[in-house]
Each structure stands twice: as C-alpha cells, then as structure tokens.
Design goal:
- By secondary structure, this protein is α/β, with parallel strands linked by helices.
- The protein has a single domain, classed as Spore Coat Polysaccharide Biosynthesis Protein SpsA, Chain A.
- Helix 6 runs parallel beside helix 9 and helix 8 packs parallel to helix 9.
- The two termini are 25 Å apart.
- The model has no long low-confidence stretch (mean pLDDT 90).
- Pfam families: Glycos_transf_2.
Amino acid sequence: MSKNTPFLSVVVPAYNEEVNIKRGAPEKLVSYLKEQKYTWEVIFVDDGSTDNTASLLEKLKNQEQRVRLIRNPHQGKAATVTTGVGKAIGAIILFTDTDQATPMNQVEKFLPHFKQGYDVVIGSRHGRAGMPFIRKITAYGFVILRTMILRLPFKDTQTGFKAFRQEAARDIFSRLKIFGKGGVISGAAVKAGFDLEILFVARKLGYKIKEMSVEWHHPGTTRVNIIKDSIDGLRDMLRIRWNALQGKYKS
C-alpha cells in the first residue's frame, strides 16, 4: 500500500436521500472518520436522484477533500455500489447506507478480523430494533429459502454494511453475473439478490468470510415492498443457483 493510498474506502450509494442528508447522517459518518488515526476516503455515488441529494452531497464534498462524489444515471443500488467499489482505492473497502441505520462506528468491530486473515466481513443486525413485525416474519422465511437454495451459512445477508480487502472486492465484483452491470431504470430498486450474489461468489472463490453482530436501527422510512421484493428475492436465488449449475462462478 503506497503512502497515498487510504487505509479505508467507504462507499455510500444514495438515491433520493435528501431527508437523511438534511438530518445529518452523512455528516455524522464523515465526522466519525475525522476522529480516526487511519487514512480514509468516502465515495458518495448518487444514483440519478430526482431530489436535491446530489447538490447536498456536492456541498459536503466541497467541505472535505477526502470526500468524493460520483453522479450515476439511475441504475439501482447494485450498480451504484459496484461503481463506487470500482473507484475505491483503499486497502479495505466498506459499503454502507446513507441513512446510517448501522452507524459508521461499527466498522471498528470489523477491522481486527482483516488482520486475522479474513477477506470479507459482513454485518449482522442485532435485534433489528424498530423493524415492523411483518418484515421480521418475511425475513425469517427469506432465511429458510436462502439456506435451502444457496446454502449460505449466515444469519443475515442483507445488512448494508459489508467490508472487503481491496483485492477480494475487485475479484468478487468482477464476477457478478446478475448484478455486475446495470441499465438505466425507473423507480427505487433495492435488490436482495445483490448481497446474495456477492456472498455466494465470495464463498465459491474460497474467500474467508466473517459475520459480525452490528447495531442496527430501523430508519423510519423504507423502500421495501414486501410482496414484490419477496418474489424478486426468490427469483434471484434461483437465478444464482442456475448460474452456479452452469459453472459461471468458477474461479
């Protein structure tokens, strides 16, 4: 790692996040990092927002030289995160959500595990405070299907707080078959299958993965459509399994 390379890159996808930006969530993220001894960068990737998200993030970028802003056409969270990861130069690359449902300080639970030889560390929501009961029920069903179809041995694959060694991130994201590329879309698009494909590919390639319990607070606003997202999630699981049977994820 050269002396100009940050230790940690934080990728933050953003689509119509004006409310969360105005309540200070991104500023809290940056303020936390300013207190740390390691070097860092934050990459906000605007997903073609139709509100003032991009202009508000531009102001934050102008206040701190370690903050970058990328403006994408609207392609959904998967393509937005992938763009940020592709531009990140840190030794460790983390992606997290704009609303900071999992606070940035939880990264401190992750970092020691990279020193222990892990390639990927993922957050697992502890208690899921504030999550509506119906979402807890559907989440339980999702876990059963995920285990049956993909054999992923994790308690929680969907928390938007995941970190990778840079080399592992480059390798994993370059091999995504369903979510590796994104066309221009309309409306919000948060696909459960994106996290599933990342973790499925990581395991297929033999990367060492650690799951860590993290704080998580229901953000109050959500883009989850339980019926549609459940159908999409099942379809994505089947597509991932089919790709695997065809050998598309082989190292």
